[in-house]
Amino acid sequence: MLRSTRSTVAAWTLPVLLAFSTTTIALAQEPPAPRERVILVSAEGEASIAPDIAIVSFSVVRNSQTAQVAMDQNSQAMNAVMAALKSQGVEARDIQTSNFSIQPQYRHFQPKEDGTIDPPEVVGYEVTNTLMVKIRDIAKVGTILDRVVKLGVNQGGQIVFTNDDPEAAFTEARKQAVERAIAKARTLTEAAGVRLGQVIQIDENARPPMPPQPMSRMAMAKEAAFDAVPVAAGENTYAVRVDLTFALEQ
């Protein structure tokens, strides 16, 4: 009985193995799927518009032997600066404190004859209050800078000119980029002797204007007496890159 059972199992196993091997060979011999006939092109479009917002960063810095005196002097000057900003039409929502710090100032000693060095001694404190101001009237930038310097701002950073709503510029840049991509695709397919088909896919990468490199911290003289700081806003250029995938017709 045992011998008969083993023979039956062997008889069933052999056809299964043969069937599996035949299927594997058949799959291996199938030709690869034909490659999709497409062409991918890229192009960039640009549009320039005049900025309508200036973002200005400046600081009031005060030094004194005690932290309290330095902070009081700093607060007095900063209150005058903020009042001047509001008198020029800058709204409270466009004035933001971006940094406030109280730093001890040290006096360092030279090594003694035996090589030891006394620990640094605190000789005063420096208080820095930095504002980030959004000026929506570009024409007032020079006048505002002049006024805040006279009222106590003695350290400056950078000015960034931007746009409140650059969507119209991006739209123009997109149209230009797509037109250039289509023209490039037509030129390539005509040169290759093939026919250009429909657009299969469109990818976009929008790029805002590059901000200026931050300037190093520069001192502003308290006695500055400018009628108005000369400021040139120029233009902002918005760029859009598109990648278009076209089918190629037979």
UniProtKB/TrEMBL annotation:
Keywords: Signal
Domain of life: Bacteria
Secretion signal, residue range per the UniProt entry: 1-28
InterPro entries on file: 26kDa_periplasmic_antigen, SIMPL/DUF541
PANTHER family assigned to the protein according to its UniProt record, in alphabetical order: PERIPLASMIC IMMUNOGENIC PROTEIN, SLR1258 PROTEIN
Name this polypeptide is given: SIMPL domain-containing protein
